[in-house]
């Protein structure tokens, strides 16, 4: 067992080492020898203040109570860092470009440098960090009690019923001294706190080594290697699939959001970031750190449950296990690890919060009350530093008071989760502001206030178990017995884990308010400018904005203002640099919009964007925001997007046009071939009669003494051939007229049956001479169609004549039926001739095509009848088709729509 | 700074930052899916691998794999767009320069 004095001595030595490291780090940095201090490794280690004593002690406690659930707190940040390209990179870039000093400054700056928003975010941050700091104090005090064996049963690890609050107070006091000494040396947030960073990097290593060492002791000293650990695990610990329910998802989301929203994380990740490329290394190294630090958690939890007395405090297993197994030096290391994790978090949180308090609450209040307008050198600067120092003390005092009031109730993990749920209320405004242009200050304010109030009502206030504002009665029955408003079952939603319940409600209301109020309100010009600068931070250069804000000021006024905030030396340097950049010799720059914007940004690095804007506004006159310039910047990206969209559309149109052209070309080629075909067929058809006419005419010319009957026969042939020729040419003309679709026909409602009857009568002579029986089958009656009766008769006659002429059957017959089918009127011409071969079905409707059977019987047919008939029917909006598989002969169908 | 200039060099010979960017997004999404129900529930069985429950091996395995992939990708992702490497905006005045 270790003596209390020895533990205290070691702790004090360790604190002395931390002070020395911080002091040396600061001195090295001032000497310009940054070296390792500026490496990605130190950057990653400083981010690991995420792992507080909640991780160091609380993760084991959480694992012992709810199994694998503790992993969510580390998986969430892992995913955020693996996806650093999406959010963290943008945050860091904006932080660099705009000289952001804190998360409150970030949000205020994004929403038009709103002082109200900055104050609200600061308040949320203070309220949510207080329990967190209390948690650290509690963990350190308890661990001290356990290790120096003051409590009667140290192995149980339970905090004493009456904890030694003086110890907690002195620890808080020590942290305040450290934070004030090394955290408030300069007021410019971008002049990084190298001493602090060096100390927390050392502490990050100590806590990792300590936890790994205890893990190694458990695995290899107490148990036999990694395989054997899980035989000691209580069956319920790891074999519960219900761990992976809504709470698992919620906690992972919560942790992922918290790593972005926690003020201290924002401070080390964004404000203290020296080089954007460090984030690239941290993207895998920080998850690796988390991985290593959780590696020991399960073995320690299992061994603690298995070997330590029943009812021991799982939150202290890390400490009590080495003590139980007699490894006191290891217990001491574990104590230092826990101490490290607590102190590093508290120190950074204090620095971040005190900056926010002084920049966003104290300075605006002082400006409004007129407390600081004495034109003294560095007057605001001293005021800022003093207010930050007081702020640090105040925050630690608040944390101590919370610890004192809340006593020893909650376990570490649940306090941490309550704080997380509060701090992620910033998430919608923060992430929405990064990606959504229309998001505005009114929306952000509504979301933040609404979400935070709900969080306070459903989670924070009930966490005091009725000890603060909300009484146990209200928790159980709702305010004034109004059951629908019970904090843990809002609107009667019961059976949900209180944390999941609170987070869903508060974030949902937060996001809804944020979105809808943003949509309902217009942005002020400054908001619009800032929104463009933030959302398009990778596309808009800082110079582009200098023309937007138009304001005039005298060099004297600006110099006076700068001296009050930055001090005389820094002011002289700033003005000289600016003059040089403008190509001037002396150290008096030309005051133009760009210079004022630069100076404002420089001041914002010290007092935050909102206060800097307010201060500059006092010194300048005639501040106007050029709407045109604003439009230009705001629309630049929009225009580029629009331009590329237009290009895309144009190329699509061109593509469509090209494909239409190629289609037209194909059609033309086909038509051309058809025309050639047609011409050669026409000339062929014309040549046959012409040849016979010419030869018979020559015979008549040459032979004078030709017998009269011969001559008469030859003349008859010539006459017949001329008639055939005329008919052929008429048909050709007819077809070409039809095909061109010229000369519209008069179509009237007619009874097609009358045309059909007259056609049958016309053909009866031909049929009788050929011995073909024409049978009229069933006929439709009272039908009206829109057509021209002469043309329709032409079609019928053509079909009847074809059927009569080309029927080679022994008892040739033609059956004509007509019918009405739905809206169509159809006439069928069915013969018992040789039929049409399947391969010819398509071809017979082409010009000059004849069926094989026809060609043999009647070489005189021109082969234009069917094409002409087809064209006529098409002009009437009907059709002429050859029905397939209807008996031995051919069956043509004429169809028309009923009028 | 030595480590930085080395990594910058690697970024220069990176074949296609666009592909790496897409990969980074997809890997994040994939990691999220693998850690969330219903996928993770599939591994919550009684099976043991070398004495360790399958679910423990799975969670830590996926985690380690993610870290490995993130490390590979981090070298291929550009630290900043090429045009930003020219003089950073208002470099003279913003006090970022090491003193």
N-to-C series of helices and strands of chain B: HHEEH
Give the overall form of chain A.
elongated
Strand content of chain B: under 5%
Q: What's the arrangement of strands in the largest beta sheet of chain B?
A: 1-2
Helix- and strand-based class of chain B?
mainly alpha
Query: What is the H level of CATH, i.e. the homologous superfamily of the largest domain in chain A?
Result: Sodium/glucose cotransporter
Report strand order across the widest sheet of chain A. Answer: 4-6-7-9-8
Mean pLDDT level of chain B: 69
Question: How far is the first residue's CA from the last residue's CA of chain A?
Answer: 111 Å
Helix content of chain A: 55-70%
Identify the CATH class of the largest domain in chain A: Mainly Alpha
Helix count from the secondary structure assignment of chain A: 34
Please state the oligomeric state of the protein chains shown: heterodimer
Into which percentage range does the β-strand content of chain A fall? 5-15%
Separation, N- and C-terminal Cα atoms of chain B: 16 Å
Total number of distinct structural domains of chain A? 5
The number of distinct β-strands of chain B equals 2
Give the mean pLDDT of chain A: 82
Overall shape of chain B: elongated
Low-confidence stretches of chain A: 853-857
Task: Write up this protein.
The complex is a heterodimer of chains A (899) and B (99). Chain A is 66% helix and 5% strand. In chain A, the strands form three sheets. In chain A, strands 4-6-7-9-8 form a five-stranded mixed β-sheet. In chain A, strands 1-2 form a two-stranded antiparallel ribbon. In chain A, strands 3-5 form a two-stranded antiparallel ribbon. In chain A, strand 6 (813-821) and strand 7 form a beta hairpin. In chain A, helix 4 (72-82) packs across helix 12 (246-261) and helix 15 (297-307) packs across helix 16. The radius of gyration of chain A is 48 Å and the shape is elongated. Chain B is built from three helices and two strands. Chain B has helices at 2-12, 17-35, 54-76; strands at 48-49, 52-53. Chains A and B meet through helix 4, helix 5, helix 10, helix 12 and helix 14 of A and helix 1, helix 2, strand 2 and helix 3 of B.
């Amino acid at each position: 067992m270790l003596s209390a004095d020895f533990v205290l001595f070691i702790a004090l030595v360790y604190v002395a080492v931390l002070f020395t490291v911080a002091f040396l780090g600061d001195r090295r940095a001032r000497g310009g020898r940054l070296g390792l201090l500026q490496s990605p490794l130190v950057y990653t280690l400083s981010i690991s203040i995420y792992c507080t004593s909640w991780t160091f002690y609380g993760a084991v406690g959480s694992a012992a109570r709810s199994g694998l659930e503790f992993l969510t707190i580390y998986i969430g940040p892992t995913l955020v860092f693996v996806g650093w390209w999406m959010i963290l990179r943008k945050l860091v870039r904006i932080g660099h470009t705009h000289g952001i000093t804190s998360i409150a400054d970030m949000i205020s700056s994004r929403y038009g440098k709103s002082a109200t928003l900055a104050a609200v975010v600061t308040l949320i941050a203070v309220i949510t960090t207080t329990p967190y700091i209390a948690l650290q104090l509690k963990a350190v005090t308890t661990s001290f009690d356990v290790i120096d064996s003051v409590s009667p049963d140290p192995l149980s690890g339970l905090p004493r019923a009456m904890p030694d609050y003086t110890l907690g107070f002195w620890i808080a006091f020590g942290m305040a001294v450290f934070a004030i000494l090394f955290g408030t040396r300069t007021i410019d947030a971008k002049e990084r706190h190298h001493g602090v960073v060096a100390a927390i990097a050392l502490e990050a290593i100590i806590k990792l080594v300590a936890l790994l060492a205890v893990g190694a002791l458990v695995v290899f000293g107490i148990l036999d290697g990694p395989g054997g650990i899980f035989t000691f695990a209580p069956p319920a610990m790891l074999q519960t699939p219900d761990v992976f329910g809504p709470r698992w998802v919620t906690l992972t989301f919560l942790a992922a959001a918290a790593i972005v929203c926690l003020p201290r994380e924002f401070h080390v990740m964004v404000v203290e970031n020296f080089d954007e490329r460090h984030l690239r290394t941290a993207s895998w190294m920080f998850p690796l750190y988390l991985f290593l630090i959780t590696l020991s958690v399960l073995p320690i939890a299992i061994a603690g449950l298995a070997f330590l007395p029943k009812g021991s405090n799982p939150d202290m297993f890390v400490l009590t296990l080495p003590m139980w197994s007699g490894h006191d030096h290891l217990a001491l290391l574990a104590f230092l690890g826990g101490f490290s994790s607590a102190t590093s978090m508290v120190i950074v949180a204090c620095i971040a919060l005190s900056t926010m308090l002084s920049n966003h609450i104290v300075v605006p209040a002082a400006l409004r009350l007129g407390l600081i307008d004495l034109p003294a050198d560095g007057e605001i600067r001293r005021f800022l530093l003093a207010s930050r120092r007081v702020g640090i003390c105040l925050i630690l005092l608040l944390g101590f008071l919370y610890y004192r009031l809340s006593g020893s109730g909650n376990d570490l993990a649940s306090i941490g989760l309550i704080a997380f749920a509060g701090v992620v209320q910033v998430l919608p405004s923060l992430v929405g502001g990064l990606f959504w242009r229309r998001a505005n200050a009114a929306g952000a304010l509504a979301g933040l206030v609404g979400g935070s109030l709900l969080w306070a009502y459903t989670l924070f206030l009930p966490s005091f178990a009725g000890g603060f504002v909300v009484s146990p009665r209200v928790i159980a029955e709702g305010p004034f017995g109004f059951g629908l408003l019970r904090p843990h079952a809002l609107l009667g939603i019961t059976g949900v884990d209180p944390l999941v319940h609170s987070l869903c409600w508060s974030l949902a209301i937060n996001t809804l308010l944020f979105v809808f109020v943003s949509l309902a309100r217009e942005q002020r010009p400054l908001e619009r400018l800032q929104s463009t600068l933030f959302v398009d931070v990778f596309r808009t250069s800082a110079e582009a904005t200098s023309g937007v804000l138009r304001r005039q000021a005298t060099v004297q006024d600006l110099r006076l203002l700068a001296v009050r905030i930055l001090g005389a030396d820094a002011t002289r340097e700033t003005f000289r640099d600016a003059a040089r950049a403008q190509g001037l010799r002396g150290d008096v720059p030309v005051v133009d919009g760009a210079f004022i914007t630069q100076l404002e940004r420089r001041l914002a690095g010290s007092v935050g964007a909102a206060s800097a804007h307010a201060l500059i506004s006092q010194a300048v006159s005639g501040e106007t925001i050029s709407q045109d310039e604003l439009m230009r910047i705001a629309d630049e990206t929009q225009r580029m997007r629009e331009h590329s969209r237009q290009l895309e559309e144009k190329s699509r149109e061109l593509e469509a046009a090209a494909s239409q052209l190629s289609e037209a070309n194909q059609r033309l080629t086909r038509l051309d071939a058809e025309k050639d075909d047609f011409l050669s067929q026409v000339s062929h058809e014309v040549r046959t009669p012409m040849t016979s006419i010419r030869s018979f005419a020559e015979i008549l010319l040459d032979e004078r003494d030709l017998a009269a009957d011969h001559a008469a026969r030859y003349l008859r042939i010539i006459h017949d051939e001329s008639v055939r020729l005329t008919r052929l040419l008429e048909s050709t003309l007819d077809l070409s007229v039809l095909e061109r679709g010229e000369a519209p026909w008069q179509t009237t409602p007619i009874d097609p049956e009358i045309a059909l009857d007259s056609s049958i009568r016309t053909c009866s002579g031909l049929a009788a001479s050929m011995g073909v029986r024409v049978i009229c089958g069933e006929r439709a009656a009272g039908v009206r169609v829109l057509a021209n009766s002469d043309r329709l008769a032409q079609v019928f006659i053509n079909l009847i004549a074809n059927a009569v002429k080309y029927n080679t059957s022994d008892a040739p017959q033609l059956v004509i039926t007509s019918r009405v089918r739905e809206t169509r009127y159809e006439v069928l011409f069915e013969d018992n001739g040789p039929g049409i071969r399947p391969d010819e079905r398509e071809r017979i409707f082409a010009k000059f095509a004849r069926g094989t059977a026809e060609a043999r019987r009647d070489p005189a047919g021109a082969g234009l009848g069917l094409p002409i008939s087809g064209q006529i029917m098409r002009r009437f909006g009907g059709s002429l088709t050859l029905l397939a598989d209807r008996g031995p002969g051919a069956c043509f169908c004429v169809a028309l729509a009923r009028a | 700074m030595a480590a930085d200039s080395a990594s910058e060099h690697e970024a220069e010979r990176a074949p296609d930052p666009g592909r790496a960017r897409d990969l980074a997004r997809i890997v994040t999404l994939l990691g999220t899916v693998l850690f969330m129900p219903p996928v993770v529930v599939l591994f919550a069985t009684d099976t043991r691998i070398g004495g360790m429950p399958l679910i423990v091996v799975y969670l830590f395995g996926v985690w380690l794999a993610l870290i490995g992939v993130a490390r590979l990708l981090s070298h291929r992702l550009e630290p900043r767009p090429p045009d930003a490497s020219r003089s950073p905006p208002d470099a003279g005045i913003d006090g970022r320069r090491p003193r």
